[in-house]
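Sequence in, structure out. Go.
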Amino acid sequence: MSVPTSNKLIFFSTSKVLMPLVRLMIHWGVGYKDFSVFLKSAYLHAGKDSLRHHGKSVTASSLSVATGIHRKDAAQFLKDQSLNNGQNISDSGSIQNSSWAFTVLSKWATDEQYIDLSNNKPIALPYSAQIGGSLSFVSLCEALTKDVRPRSILDELLRLELVRQEDDLIYLRSSAFIPQNDLETKVEFFARNISEHIDVATCNLIGLSEPKFERMASHDGLTVEDIAELREIANEKGMALLREIYQLAEMKSKINNDKYPDTSKQCYKFSLGVFVNDTKASSEEK
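Output:
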């Protein structure tokens, strides 16, 4: 039996999506055998979610049919899920639970009260409030959580080299959103950003909901100098857009906290991502 044209298109497109991911696996020494274990787990989790979404019962047989994975493996998966209270592969660990350090980092880099409007960059903060002043690193942290000490958050940001401390002032480094020295943090960014982008693209392809905005501007025939100029503009305007969206969402969230004591109404999350990529065109692409 021939493969449907739609399936062929998905096979071809997915192979292109997988190439950079497989390159990452090879770089870190993750072989096909190990990766296939995670791939099978992802298939089973996604299959279970798909069956539930369509109102179908989740059994070893239905899961096997939906995913093409042997019924014995599907049955073992459901048994393990039952023992683990249905926990998904991304329900635990640092990948799902963004640290308070990054929550503080996000507010500092996007909230207008922490931005110097003359250069559109985050201001330096004293650790604690000075006489006649209200903004400080401590007040920033305590506005977000009372459960974690500000000193612990600062120590984590210093460890990751996302901030620097000089003369009783704390400065946010320009590379704060691109961690340089911590693999766990880089992986956390990678998992969150890429999974959300692929989720948007998947929703648009499947057509389960109203199409979500997903656009890209791309052009070739450029020089190294052109790339540097375009990158600078994209970084500046991209960060400005992220701040604008964050500030608006923060304002609405505060209004909702007062307007809806029942937090079940506040069940939606909004994400906006910006990326810049520049590559040297291969001879085949010219």
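Check: Strands lie at 115-116, 121-122, 125-126, 163-166, 169-172. DSSP finds nine helices and five strands in the chain.
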